[in-house]
Specification:
This protein has five helices and 14 strands. By secondary structure, the protein is an alpha/beta fold. The strands form three sheets. The protein has a six-stranded mixed sheet with strand order 1-2-3-4-5-6, with no helix packed on it. A six-stranded mixed sheet has the order 7-8-9-10-13-14. Helix 4 runs antiparallel to helix 5. The longest helix is centred in the C-terminal third of the chain and has 13 residues. The protein is globular and about 45 Å long.
């Protein structure tokens, strides 16, 4: 499956938004980069759907612009004015050329989900490969209102339970993409999250 990070040129804060090409061209998160529509059009004029990992502003700010430009079907866990189809834990969604299971992974956000296929993980913010706190296995922050480290830890455990050993590509909401032993990255993130220590000094 061909995947492009269409927020790569952003100079302001945004999540990573991923364009997965194939039988079902899909944007995973819309991001906050005002050039995302043009970035998608560099690769395709046909965007079938947008799937959201969660609805924090850095993941959905440009959703209106993407919907206006491409009229895709929008999938999300929680209600949203532009949502066409709800996803729930255990749902299946086609992304690019693969079928993905939806795994409910709250803690960083109450509506957070990850998408898992036999080869690929779109993890959103529940687990990331690297960020300003850790390299090779980090996790979403839980120090803001409505967030929970305990629930995030359980979500990472749930994700591991549903993660096939064959997964070798990880596309997270922040940081770099990763190809290799994705399970090891997620297990490392879990070990760090389980220590219950603040991720950031002011947490």
């Amino acid at each position: 499956m061909e995947v492009h990070t269409v927020t790569a040129e952003a100079e302001s804060f945004t999540c990573n938004a991923y364009l997965a090409l194939g039988e079902t061209p899909t944007l995973v998160d819309a991001g906050a980069y005002d050039g995302v529509v043009d970035a998608v059009r560099e690769h395709t004029d046909d965007l079938d759907q947008v799937v959201l990992t969660h609805q924090h502003g850095d993941h959905v700010e440009q959703l209106d612009a993407v919907v206006d430009a491409f009229d895709p079907t929008v999938y999300a866990y929680d209600d949203h004015p532009l949502r066409d189809e709800p996803v729930t834990d255990g749902s299946e969604v086609a992304i690019g050329d693969e079928a993905f299971d939806v795994v409910y992974t709250p803690g960083h956000a109450d509506d957070h989900v990850a998408y898992v296929s036999e080869s690929t993980l779109f993890s959103g913010d529940v687990v990331v490969h690297d960020d300003g706190a850790f390299d090779y296995g980090s996790f979403g922050r839980t120090d803001m209102a409505g967030q929970s480290r305990e629930r995030l830890v359980q979500s990472i455990r749930d994700l591991l339970d549903r993660l096939p050993d064959s997964v070798e590509h990880m596309y997270s909401g922040h940081g770099d993409t990763f190809s290799g032993d994705v399970r090891d990255v997620v297990e490392t993130a879990l070990e760090r999250a389980e220590q219950r220590e603040p991720k950031y000094p002011d947490e």
